[in-house]
Amino acid sequence: MKKYVQDVSLLSILVIFLVFIITSNYYVTDMVYYSINMWIKRIVPTLLPTFIIVDLFYNSNIPYLVQKYLHFNPLYIISIISGSPTNAYVLKEANNCENALAVTKYTGFIFTILSLKNIFDNHIVLLLILFNILCNFILVLFIKPGSFYINRKHISFVNCFVQSIKNGMVILINILGFVIFFNILPINYIDNQLIKGILYSMSEVTTSFAYLSYTTLGFPIKLFLAIISMSSCGLCISLQIKSIISDTNFNYKQYIKYRLIHLILFLILGLFLLI
């Protein structure tokens, strides 16, 4: 019975969404163009170079040597720079994959700085990024995710560079598809700025940051919504991660629990220390 209800509910949602696309063709077309434009101007210039650099670094023997001689796993730092879902391609091979991804979930470092600078003063941007990192490291102490063992690599620089560009474009095209889907949702029809901001912050981080840069909501509300976007990375990125680790034994309930703890810690630090 439960399965039947789920199937009927899903079919109903799909029918409603199909009707919406047919009856709101101009809106859908505008949002597709908007998504592609945002993807070209905001996502590609920051994520593609970052992915190539991170992938080249990871596929060199530097991470292996750092882990072996300094007894520190550089994947924590790599995740801060690359962000999600890029780091999921590396961490899906780790033991306790859900723990590894739970403590390394970030929006791309360069993308985050450039986006938040359009919303807040520079010192607020810096503190938000530091608080985000701190909350993840608190989770590391709490969860103790275990070691992410890094093997010695045997791949030439040229081959790695070519493969990095190829993989980077695959990721970007995947991101574009998800961004288009979430942007054609009828959130833009909502007049209430707060409700619209909450829905954007929970769905798609690029659109959320863009919305916060021009909305007239007050500073505390913008800060609250920005923290939700940074902590969750939006449902859009969460689904991208899910598509990457779909062939792994992933404990979603545990992963979501840890991310909720991160959000609560982040909100406490951000709202109490910055307002």
What's the short version?
With 275 residues, the chain is mostly helical. The protein has 14 helices and no strands.
Structural overview:
The protein is built from 14 helices and no strands. Helix content is 76%, strand content 0%. It has one domain (27-274). The mean pLDDT is 84. Helix 10 (193-203) packs antiparallel against helix 11 (205-214). 35% of the residues are buried. The radius of gyration is 19 Å and the shape is globular. With 275 residues, it is mostly helical.
Secondary-structure map:
Layout: H1 2-23, H2 25-58, H3 62-70, H4 75-82, H5 88-91, H6 97-102, H7 109-116, H8 122-143, H9 157-183, H10 193-203, H11 205-214, H12 219-232, H13 234-244, H14 252-274
Helix pairs in contact: 2-4, 2-9, 7-8, 8-14, 9-13, 10-11, 10-12, 10-13, 11-12, 12-13, 12-14
List the main descriptive attributes of the protein structure presented here.
14 helices, 275 residues, mainly alpha, 76% helix
